[in-house]
């Protein structure tokens, strides 16, 4: 009985393809060959895609590095610009303080010929000190000159003439 089953399972006899269904209806393995060709085509396509993706990844890495350097340069330039704006703001505030200090020096009085005075001014954290003199020339003319120094080490000056009747 075992010999009979083995004979049925045997695939082909005397070098001929079998027809018992073990390897298909005629015992040929052409399906496996077609699968190997299709698999090889997919492997080749995938290998090409991997190569292209690797090139793209390397290119993206270079571009990211270049963009990072550009961003760093922009951040440095922005920081320098911010510092310059802050410095200009301090300079302007100091100048305003100087103008306030000079404008607060008292004027020569009616019964005086010459007056020397000082004034202080402050604006937004900056300060200034000013000194000045005014003189009466006759009954109708007053001349005034002032100078100031502020916390940003700027020196300002001013002069004026008044004629009245």
Automatic annotation (TrEMBL):
UniProt subcellular location: Cell outer membrane; Cell surface
Pfam families reported for this sequence: YadA_anchor
Keyword Signal: yes
SUPFAM superfamilies attached to this UniProt entry: Pili subunits
Primary localization: membrane
Keywords: Cell outer membrane, Membrane, Signal, Transmembrane, Transmembrane beta strand
Domain called Trimeric autotransporter adhesin YadA-like C-terminal membrane anchor: residue spans: 106-165
CC annotations in GO: cell outer membrane; cell surface
Name of this chain's protein: Trimeric autotransporter adhesin YadA-like C-terminal membrane anchor domain-containing protein
């Amino acid at each position: 009985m075992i010999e009979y089953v083995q004979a049925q399972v045997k695939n082909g006899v005397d070098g001929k393809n079998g027809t018992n269904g073990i390897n298909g209806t005629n015992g040929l393995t052409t399906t496996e060959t077609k699968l190997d060709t299709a698999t090889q085509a997919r492997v080749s396509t995938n290998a090409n895609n991997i190569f292209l993706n690797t090139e793209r990844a390397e290119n993206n890495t270079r571009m990211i590095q270049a963009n990072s350097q550009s961003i760093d340069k922009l951040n440095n330039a922005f920081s320098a610009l911010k510092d310059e704006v802050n410095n200009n703001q301090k300079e302007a505030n100091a100048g305003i303080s100087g103008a306030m200090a000079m404008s607060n020096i008292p004027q020569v009085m009616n019964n005086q010929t010459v007056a020397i005075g000082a004034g202080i001014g402050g604006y937004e954290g900056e300060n200034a000190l000013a000194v000045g003199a005014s003189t009466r020339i006759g009954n109708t003319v007053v001349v005034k000159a002032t100078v100031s120094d502020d916390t940003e080490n700027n020196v300002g000056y001013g002069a004026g003439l008044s004629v009245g009747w």
